[in-house]
Amino acid sequence: MKNSITPPEDFMLRRCPPLFKMQLSWAPVAGAVKYNIYARTGDDPECSPNEVRFGLIDSTPNTVFVYLSSSGLSASGQFGFYVTAVDVNGNESPPSEKKFLLIAKMKGPMNDHS
User: Fold this and answer.
1) Long-range pairs of 43-46 with CB within 8 A, sequence gap ≥ 24
2) CA 96 to CA 78: how far, in whole Å?
3) Which domains does the chain have, with CATH numbers?
4) Burial group, residue 41, by CB count within 10 angstroms (0-12, 13-18, 19+)
5) Per-residue pLDDT of the chain (114 residues; tens, 9 = 90+)
């Protein structure tokens, strides 16, 4: 029987000062040896309006991850993340809840959407 691992719960996304960093955090998963971080950043011109593509950006044994965009979040668009748990055998859980942060190209505060 294949070992199953549950997805991370209590997934949170928040901005960290300065505005170009975001902190991701989640509850630990029993049996997980690492967590895979997936992201969608900016507007992808190859995607249809209803399609969202995510790609693996990093892995960590920790339940907190700080994301620093290579563009410094200066681009407008929707930044999205989700996390999966991975066990010692390499089995990957289903994804956590997806969280999004909308960056508007204007002067003033950023808008949170989760």
Assistant:
1) 43/76, 43/77, 43/78
2) 18
3) 12-106 (2.60.40.10)
4) buried
5) 355 899 999 999 987 766 567 889 999 999 999 999 998 865 555 555 556 678 898 999 999 998 876 554 445 567 789 999 999 999 999 999 999 877 655 454 444 444
- Measured at the alpha carbon of residue 24, what is the angle toward residues 19 and 25, in degrees to the nearest 5? 140
Which tokens sit at 104?
């508007």
pLDDT of the residue at 108: 46
> By three-state DSSP, how is residue 57 classified?
strand
Q: Based on the number of CB atoms within 10 Å of its own CB, is 103 exposed (0-12), middle (13-18) or buried (19 or more)? A: buried
